């Protein structure tokens, strides 16, 4: 390696890079153990009707407490799960667990599960969803799969076919982080989504930035025209909630209404007496 570095003038194996590679290998190893030793948990964040304050459901968010390191954010470890081929097993567990949990919630409440690009690349997503629903007894319309534009960017006929089969089963499909990709509007034409989740970045800036507010207004209008539900992500303060109310946004999610919480905490939101089972 030293020879290469001399010849090309590049430091392929600088101490810095070597350290990064070792850390990465260790992270992958720890994730393998996390999977085998059931270290993953799900947190649920409430989805709320802005008009009534009623909880419409919860989004399942993957959590990992890495021994010796503390909580690792999913944005950091999910890409590693995808690259190391572990995503299949972990996401099957997420689906299974979220459906089991939601089956005990009141029937008016649904559960949202994030599905990544890598999951669409693997065969068997449809069967995994079908199996999780059957085993949990959760009605299909109470399961909402959140996909990002990157799923549709691959745009293989198989991706669209899988989405359509899932939707035909009764499962709801939401477009997550709407507005952050390259051609969000184009995807609205090609696939009949049930929900648009307006990305947090627009909500964050809507009070100061007229453009952000205009985009939110436009998306709410489009969603109403198309008969799609619109939800605004990342609502952190009352001012944002009020502005969203003025724009006619029906549903919200964010720290103002509830942080991601344990299943037990989430269950107390609707009260044990109201549990469907
Ligand atoms: P996402 O699907 O857009 O999830 C929303 C993220 O925004 C969550 O971050 C949530 O904690 C955070 N959030 C919610 N309300 C607020 C707010 O008011 N302010 C701020 N600043 N943030 C808020 P989290 O849990 O770190 O998840 C990050 C991303 O990781 C998710 O983004 C999702 O893309 C991915 N992810 C999480 N769980 C799973 C999973 O089970 N499978 C897959 N494939 N991806 C997952
Ligand atoms: Mg999501
Ligand atoms: Mg999102
Ligand atoms: Mg987001």
From TrEMBL:
Coiled coil: none annotated. It comes from the Bacteria. Residues 24-274 form the EAL domain. This is Diguanylate cyclase. It comes from Teichococcus rhizosphaerae.
């Amino acid at each position: 390696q030293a020879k290469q570095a001399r010849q090309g003038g590049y430091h392929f194996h600088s101490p810095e890079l070597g350290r990064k590679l070792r850390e990465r290998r260790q992270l992958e190893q720890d994730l393998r153990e996390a999977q085998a030793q059931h270290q993953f948990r799900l947190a649920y964040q409430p989805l709320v009707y802005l008009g009534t304050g009623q909880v419409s459901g919860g989004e399942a968010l993957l959590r990992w407490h890495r021994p010796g390191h503390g909580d690792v954010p999913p944005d950091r470890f999910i890409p590693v799960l995808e690259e190391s081929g572990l995503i299949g097993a972990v996401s099957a567990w997420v689906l299974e667990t979220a459906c089991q949990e939601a089956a005990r919630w009141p029937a008016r409440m649904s559960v949202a599960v994030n599905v990544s690009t890598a999951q669409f690349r693997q065969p068997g997503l449809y069967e995994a969803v079908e199996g999780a629903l059957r085993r949990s007894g959760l009605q299909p319309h109470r399961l909402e799969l959140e996909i990002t534009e990157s799923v549709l960017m691959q745009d293989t006929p198989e991706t669209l076919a899988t989405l359509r089969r899932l939707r035909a089963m009764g499962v709801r499909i939401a477009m997550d982080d709407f507005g952050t990709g390259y051609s969000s509007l184009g995807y609205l034409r090609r696939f009949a989504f049930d929900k648009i989740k307006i990305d947090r970045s627009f909500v964050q800036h809507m009070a100061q930035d007229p453009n952000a507010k205009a985009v939110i207004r436009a998306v709410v209008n489009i969603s109403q025209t198309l008969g799609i539900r619109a939800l605004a992500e990342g609502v952190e303060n009352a001012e944002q909630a009020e502005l969203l109310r003025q724009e006619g946004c029906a549903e919200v999610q964010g720290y103002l209404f509830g942080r991601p919480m344990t299943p037990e905490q989430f269950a107390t939101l609707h009260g044990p007496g109201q549990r469907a089972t």
